[in-house]
Amino acid sequence: MDVEHVTGLPHPRLRPFVTRYSGYRIVSGPGVHRGLPSSSLTLVVTVDGTVDLPGASFAALCGGLHDEAVLISHDGFQHGVQCDLTPLGMRAFFGRPAGELSGTTVGLTDLDAPAGELRERLRTARTWADRFAHLDLVLSRLVRPVRQRPEVAWAWQRLAAGAAVAGIAAEVGWSRQHLSARFAAEYGLTPKVAGRVMRFERANRMLRGPRRPTLTEVAAACGYADQAHLNRDWRALCGATPTEWIATELPFVQGGGAGQGAQSLP
Question: Does the keyword Transcription regulation apply (predicted)?
Answer without folding.
Answer: yes
